[in-house]
Design brief:
transport; transmembrane; transmembrane helix; 25 helices; five-stranded antiparallel sheet; alpha+beta
Length: about 850
């Protein structure tokens, strides 16, 4: 594993790949994931590149595999997902695999098409059977008019029209029968009435069971209808209306014997179709089961092959040497593995001329590579969400591993809540190899990816909960309180001490609503609690006042230390990039400005804690008043914290005042002086050589005579702007903006760290309210119903604790901790303007199947 303090050193390498070995070499590189390719054909369209045909072939194979996965999922056949990743297929096997997949696709489509056709015919025959069964009750044959007419039960009692009249008119009675969707019956009947003007008789009845639609496959309710009409023109209109409403129309038998013959024929055909359909489904399932055994490896192979050809399209083709030239970014530590991968690829292809690589110098900024493991990955993602670090600058993730969960725990300090979070994260860590957790839903997968962050957050919350002595809003007396109540009684002291101290007696205890413990009384305060807050403060009425004072000062101290540490890390950046003048003209003035004001504030807080005791606490000056007087210079003398305080504060203010103009003007004036031909030590320069150019401030001006003599003193301090690009106004404006932002930010950022106190207070109060509203009520119920009520109260308390205090409050503290790191800490030294190193690695390819029946 590389260093987490800085990104790894990168180099630009040029690969010379023989045409016959390029595929195998890139396959070996993809398995190891060592390099990031640069596109050497940016001006060439994607459709005009050399390997576009191979990419289209891979896309065609992907399309076939997507179809196979869809059919396998439709047949409810489990898709195997092997742990081992198969290598990219050799070029000799690609055509064979393509032929096999195409043949399998044609066979599957044909069998599936026949199956669907058989299934549709079966459903139509079943509908026809139901239609004949229902319409049999509609119409009864009349023996007298059997050759020509059919009569309806409703017409026998109809006096408007009899069969003798129809026979005299020579009318021909026609029928249309079929099935219609239940929701279309009413509109269908109205349309027939309006179009046919009442010359039709519609009879319909609802089927007892729902049938599957042969067209859509949807199971719906159907109505069987029988339409009788007179005349061919009306018949044509009826048939068009049936087509318009998507009715399933079937032939209607003219005689009872014909109906019986059709019914017998339908039953025979239905039995035959069931047999053929079952055999077709069995054969189709056998083919799909055989295809499912290899579909996982085929998907991985095709995906790897497509990735290889995409990388080959980024290479330039040398016609004279018949080789491909690629440019890649590679960590210097992996150059040996890169050469070995090229040798393996050349050996597998059997080429006589091996592929090789050369490192080439460049002025371009390399991508940023910071190697992580499963523990550090989550913290690095928090930093990268702000911005990928610039090349070789200090990486905040190394310190975020400790500072992030600690600042979270300061806001979330509760022993019980932290222990629950720790157990949940520990459960995820112990079962991290479980396949269900890796394939869980998005929210659960988010918790799983941040399991180590949750683990440290819970562990640090347990520690801060012990410091606050807070466990589900209750204190725990582990070591015994350091306060003694009995020492406040007058009987415990001599009579001559009663006048000097305010002591208790039976009358005072009986008539006083609030009793105050005086630590100045001998024997009352026996020493500090060994770990954290004394549990007796949980009973005190001024508990909130005491904790607010403690947490507020603690937040200020932690914030100033955190920001000062960020400024110090900026010094390491200046040393690494050989910008020592930034240390003297930027970092040191920033440190002096921070420490002379806010560092002195920490000194006053700690000094007052150490010097003043319970006996002298009443005469102790206010830190806030003393800090304000430091800037106001009051005319009257005040009782300070220590002797000579006024002189020390004036010296600190003078240092602060001097650091501001240096911070504003020091760097621009130095660059101007350097631009006018002055050396850092007052020596005139005779010539200038451009050594490096990453930004306007990373250009060195070196004298030719210094280079000849090997004098590299100026390399450490004089790396600035070239003559042609020097713009003093722009540099001055940039530095002024940065200085104003820093000076004002020191004040606003220090106040921003008070969120540590505010959220800690909010979390403690919410926990206290939840306990008072639920657990206290449940515990105060009498013994008769107490047990029955306590169980649901405990369950409700647990649910609200998890959702409100653990999830909602935890998310709030998590977001505030991120803000403190991004805004208050990282902006002191972290630029975050780099590009992430994205290697050509097959491990980055997804090997899972999506839920939408397609390949991931």
């Amino acid at each position: 594993m590389g260093s987490l303090f800085r990104s790894e050193t990168m180099c630009l390498a040029q690969l010379f790949l023989q045409s016959g070995t390029a595929y195998e070499c890139l396959s070996a590189l993809g398995e190891k994931g060592l390099v990031q390719f640069r596109d050497l054909n940016q001006n060439v369209s994607s459709f005009q590149r050399k390997f576009v045909g191979e990419v289209k072939r891979c896309e065609e194979l992907e399309r076939i595999l997507v179809y196979l996965v869809q059919e396998i999922n439709r047949a409810d056949i489990p898709l195997p997902e092997g742990e081992a990743s198969p290598p990219a297929p050799p070029l000799k096997q690609v055509l064979e695999m393509q032929e096999q997949l195409q043949k399998l696709e044609v066979e599957l489509r044909e069998v599936t098409k026949n199956k669907e056709k058989l299934r549709k015919n079966l459903l139509e025959l079943i509908e026809y059977t139901h239609m004949l069964r229902v319409t049999k009750t509609f119409v009864k044959r009349n023996v007298e008019f059997e050759p020509t007419y059919e009569e309806f039960p409703a017409l026998e009692n109809d006096s408007l029209l009899d069969y003798s009249c129809m026979q005299r008119l020579g009318a021909k009675l026609g029928f249309v029968s079929g099935l219609i969707n239940q929701g279309k019956v009413e509109a269908f009947e109205k349309m027939l009435w309006r179009v046919c003007k009442g010359y039709t008789i519609v009879t319909y009845a609802e089927l007892d069971e729902s049938l599957e639609d042969p067209e859509t496959g949807e199971v719906i309710k159907w109505y069987v209808f029988l339409i009788s009409f007179w005349g061919e023109q009306i018949g044509h209109k009826v048939k068009k209306i049936c087509d318009c409403y998507h009715c399933h129309v079937y032939p209607y038998p003219n005689t009872a014997e014909e109906r019986r013959e059709i019914q017998e024929g339908l039953n025979t055909r239905i039995q035959d179709l069931y047999t053929v359909l079952h055999k077709t489904e069995d054969y189709l399932r056998q083919v799909l089961c055989k295809a499912a055994e290899t579909v996982y490896s085929r998907v991985i192979q095709v995906r790897k092959m497509k990735a290889i050809y995409h990388m080959l399209n980024m290479c330039s083709f040398d016609v004279t040497n018949k080789c491909l030239i690629a440019e890649v970014w590679c960590p210097e530590a992996d150059l040996h593995d890169l050469r070995r991968a090229l040798e393996e690829g050349s050996r597998e292809s059997g080429a006589t001329i091996p592929s090789f690589m050369n490192t080439i110098p460049t002025k371009e900024t390399p991508p940023t590579l910071i190697r992580t493991n499963k523990f550090t990955e989550g913290f690095q993602n928090i930093v990268d969400a702000y911005g990928v670090g610039s090349y070789r600058e200090v990486n905040p993730a190394l310190f975020t591993i400790i500072t992030f969960p600690f600042l979270f725990a300061v806001m979330f300090g509760d022993f019980g809540h932290g222990f629950v979070m720790f157990l949940f994260a520990l459960l995820l860590v112990l079962n991290e190899n479980h396949p269900r957790l890796k394939q869980s839903q998005e929210i659960m997968r988010m918790f799983f990816n941040g399991r180590y962050i949750l683990l440290l957050m819970g562990l640090f919350s347990v520690y801060t909960g012990l410091i606050y002595n807070d466990c589900f809003s209750k204190s725990v007396n582990l070591f015994g309180s350091g306060w003694n109540v009995s020492a406040m009684y007058s009987s415990s002291h001599a009579p001559q001490e009663h006048k000097k101290m305010v002591l208790w007696n039976d009358s005072v205890v009986k008539h006083s609503r609030v009793l105050q413990l005086d630590p100045s009384v001998p024997g009352v305060f026996q020493g500090p609690y060994p770990l954290g807050i004394d549990p007796i403060w949980n009973l005190a009425t001024n508990r909130l006042t005491f904790l607010n004072s403690f947490k507020m000062k603690m937040s200020v101290i932690l914030g100033i230390i955190h920001m000062t540490f960020g400024v110090i890390l900026g010094i390491f950046n200046h040393l690494h990039f050989r910008k020592k003048f930034n240390i003297y003209l930027v970092s040191i003035p920033e440190l002096l400005f921070m420490l002379c004001i806010f560092g002195y504030l920490i000194f006053m807080i700690v000094y007052k804690w150490l010097v003043f005791s319970a006996e002298s606490s009443r005469v102790a000056p206010s830190i806030l008043i003393e800090f304000i007087n430091m800037f106001l210079f009051p005319a009257s003398e005040t009782n300070g914290l220590y002797r000579g305080q006024e002189h020390v504060q004036r010296v600190l203010l003078v240092v602060t005042a001097l650091s501001v103009p240096i911070l504003f003007l020091g760097k621009p004036l130095f660059l101007l002086w350097l631009h006018n031909g002055r050396s850092c030590f007052g020596v005139s320069r005779s010539g200038y050589t451009l050594v490096r150019k990453d930004s306007e401030e990373e250009v060195s001006l070196l004298g030719s005579q210094d280079i000849e003599e090997g004098n590299n003193q100026m390399e450490d301090g004089c790396r600035e702007v070239t003559c042609e690009e020097f713009n003093f106004g722009e540099i001055l404006m940039t530095q002024v903006i940065h200085s104003i932002e820093y000076c004002l930010g020191c004040i606003s950022n220090t106040a921003s760290y008070l969120r540590l106190w505010a959220l800690s207070l909010a979390h403690a109060q919410l926990s206290d309210v939840l306990w008072a509203m639920l657990m206290r009520v449940g515990l105060r119920v009498d013994r008769t119903y107490g047990v029955l009520l306590l169980l649901p109260v405990i369950a409700l308390f647990a649910v609200l604790t998890v959702f409100i205090l653990l999830i909602m409050e935890g998310l709030s503290a998590f977001l505030h901790a991120i803000r403190l790191h991004w805004v208050e800490f990282q902006n002191k030294f972290y630029v975050g303007a780099g590009t992430k190193f994205v290697p050509f690695s097959f491990r980055l390819l997804s090997s899972k199947f999506n839920n939408d029946d397609s390949v991931a």
